[in-house]
Design goal:
CATH topology: Heat Shock Protein 90
CATH superfamily: Histidine kinase-like ATPase, C-terminal domain
Helix content: 40-55%
Radius of gyration: 16 Å
CATH architecture: 2-Layer Sandwich
Largest sheet: 5 strands, mixed
Shape: globular
Number of helices: 6
């Protein structure tokens, strides 16, 4: 029961942070309400995945599918990488990042014009293995959205997720592509590291 109580309190803290950060960046109450609802639903999707496996680890491909499914992406997403079971912290944080990336893709790039390729790798020796996740979006209409924005999504992708996972993230934009990269120590991502 203590573990469940701890997890619930962590979720409340995340939700309060989402509300506070969204409120600080939205001027229109309707936009604020919509964005908070979307972000809390994204957290709920991640929570559903964790609950369905009794918090025993969520496959990264399942997390991606769960975050992309609510949006009409017209088959514009592809993903590849080794099978990896994420721990609860990684599920919640990577899920939040994926949500922000998908929202940006749908709202600003247009699913009919751009494609997204998600790939991930594990590299290094067993004592220092690194997890690397790359979001590569091509055919974008607004290639440097995060560089000019200071919204909650920008904060999530530039700082929050990387800090929560003990890693780093980068955002690179060219005229025709957006690339977001997350690198973190594998023990901070994967469940069951011995």
């Amino acid at each position: 029961m203590r573990e469940i109580n701890h997890r619930i309190k962590n979720q409340y803290a995340v939700i309060l942070s989402v509300i506070a950060q969204s409120a600080a960046r939205e001027l229109d109450i309707k936009a604020f309400e919509r964005r908070v609802r979307e972000r809390i639903m994204a957290l709920s999707h991640s929570q559903d995945l964790l609950s369905s496996v009794d918090w025993a680890g969520v496959d990264l491909k399942a997390l991606i599918s769960h975050q992309v499914r609510p949006f009409d992406t017209s088959g514009a997403f592809s993903c590849s990488g080794p099978e990896i079971l994420l721990d609860a912290n990684a599920v919640l944080n990577i899920g939040m990042a994926l949500h922000e990336l998908v929202i940006n893709h749908v709202q600003f790039s247009g699913t009919e014009l751009s494609d997204v390729e998600l790939s991930w790798t594990v590299s290094g020796d067993p004592d220092g293995e690194q997890f690397k996740l790359i979001w590569r979006e091509t055919g974008v209409r607004e290639p440097d959205l995060l560089a000019r924005g200071n919204g909650f999504g920008s904060l999530v992708l530039k700082r929050i997720v990387a800090a929560a996972l003990g890693g780093t993230s980068t955002w690179n934009a060219t005229e025709d592509a957006i690339i977001w990269t997350l690198i973190a120590p594998l023990p901070r991502i994967k469940i069951g590291i011995e």
